[in-house]
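Quick one: structure for this chain?
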Amino acid sequence: MITLHHCKGARSFRALWTLEEMELPYELKLVAFPPRAKEPGYLDLNPLGTVPSFFDDGVLMTESAAICEYLAAKYGPTPLVVGPDEPGFAPYLNFLHMGEATLTFPQTIHLRYAVFAAPEQMIPQAAEDYVNWFLARLRGATRLLGDDEFVAAGRFTVADVSVGYALKLAKTLGFADRFPEPWVRYLARLQARDGYQRAMAVEKRAPGALD
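Got it. Here's what it folds into:
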């Protein structure tokens, strides 16, 4: 049995979106952010205190991009995976990890110093520097995307889920007007998908977090 602990606006959306794209059965537990502070006993469930907390037959996973890769590999075959024998395999893996390591990470630093810190601990310059870092990397990735509709193999994959969440977060934080135009169109395509819309409908029931 799959169980996903999810906070509104958090990286756990990647897992939720993938579950909906694959139409897999799962139990969803909506938790307040940050769960380590607002959900009693959460650290016993997940020692990192983060979301997602994803369980499949009692085994814990905490990394959102890895969960997407796991679901597609375990519960496939699915076109959401690009195989090693396909020409798009290398871009698929590259964008799958870029979505978290390159595009989401700097936004979390912005959140730390511009949103979640106590007023006396906020560092506006650091927060803005990391926004500019994110936007610079996104501009660089435009050359890798080219004229393609999706990031790899000419079709929607979990690499798009990974990148798409990073852009979703940036849009929530108010950076979308600074996106290069290809990424504006790209995000619109992803957000029009039925799987994305179903995941968003579920997410709207989540308490608190990033509105």
